[in-house]
Amino acid sequence: MKNRFMLAPLTNKQSHDNGTLSDDELKWLTMRAKGQFGLVMTCASNVQANGKAWSGELGVYSDIQLSGHRKLAEGIKAHGSLAVIQLFHGGMRSPKELIDGQPVCPSDNKEYDARALSLAEVYQVKDDFISAALRAKEASYDGVEIHAAHGYLLAQFLSSEINHRNDIYGGSLENRARLIFEIIDGVYKACGSEFLIGVRLSPERYGMILDEVKLVAQWLIDSDKIDFLDLSLWDVLKKPEKHSDTNKRLLDHFLELDYNNVKLTVAGKINGGKEVYEILNSGVDFVAIGKSAILHHDFPLRVMNDKNFKSKQLPISISHLEHEGLGPKFIEMMKSWPDFVKK
Is the distance from CB of 237 to CB of 269 less than 8 angstroms? Predict the structure, then answer.
């Protein structure tokens, strides 16, 4: 990795309905590689057809999607960036109108009208994550990130609020985390030690408990199977919302862990050089940039050339977003963000 900037995995709704890559999504992502992000990560890409969580989602569950991934991985790497694909399953958050049948969940869930996965189906989810990673390797990606954050399927397994199973995938934290570890173990064995494996966790919201997520993070590090841990903190400088120790920042809770050889990256309101250098100097290995990467395809260059650089203030014009490589569907999605796009 040539520098300490990563493009965060950002939903952009630009793929085709069958999960294949569009020219707009190719342009958006390769433009960030050209803008000198040392690691460019795709949006969340579903490993099963019924794991689709939004329209225009990139898929990696079928070989018909393979040629687009080859083009994308090669396009990112052509600019000297690492190419990593994020693997995920929407679980109960997969809308009925986008999938066949009911959404699935660790347990029956009335709020989302989701049904519990059978044990055989849990095994199938595991196998499909591993198959997706193999497909990614075949497409020449440098690695994968397992998405276990933001209330999607793997985070649903982690949550004691959502997961009420009474088999080996429910109950204790070890059981609730089991599927994540089995997926990582399978990817490591199938793809080899040189293929990067990262995991994204979010320590708050969606039924997450900070102390449990810290434990899982340390277990992941100690497994010696992952290369980086990606923490989505919403705001890198915020204090914990629900914890006995709110005197220190949420990030500081994770800086206490023993990372050994695992790299740490964090995301959340890193809007300029001041935040970048403060976070890197605190002991984080590299920063994951989301909103600022939408506003500036070359955010890394701007910060490396000017430590005081600040992202453009919102709201932003449509013409600016077009200039920064966002296609019509992505711009339409950004209009749903409060006060992001000028009316």
Answer: yes
DSSP 22: P
Going by C-alpha positions, the residue among 107, 261, 77 that lies closest to residue 170 is 107
Which residues pair with residue 316 across a beta bridge? 341
Give the separation between CA 84 and CA 73, rounded to whole angstroms: 8
Mean predicted confidence (pLDDT) in 279-294: 97
Beta carbons within 8 Å of 198's beta carbon, 6+ residues apart: 84, 143, 144, 145, 146, 226, 227, 228, 229, 230
Contact 139, 76 (CB under 8 A): no
Number of domains, the chain: 2
Q: Tokens 């939004």 label which residue?
A: 54
Q: Which residues contact 298 (CB under 8 A, 6 or more apart)?
A: 34, 35, 36
User: What is the C-alpha separation between 343 and 224, in angstroms, rounded?
Assistant: 49
Residues 228 and 340 in one domain: no
One domain for residues 97 and 13: yes
User: Do both 194 and 339 map to the same domain?
Assistant: no
Helices (H), 153-290: 153-158, 173-191, 210-222, 250-255, 273-281
Residue 125's Cβ-count burial label (10 Å; 0-12, 13-18, 19+) is buried
Is residue 220 domain-shared with residue 334, that is, in the same domain? no
> DSSP label at 181?
H
What pLDDT shows up at residue 175?
98
277 with 326, same domain: the answer is no
CATH number, domain of 137, equals 3.20.20.70
Specify the pTM.
0.97
Q: Sign of dihedral through CA atoms 146, 231, 39, 228?
A: negative
- Do 219 and 115 share a domain, yes or no? yes
| 152-163 per-position pLDDT tens digit | 999 999 999 999
User: What is the extent of the structural domain holding 324?
Assistant: 313-343
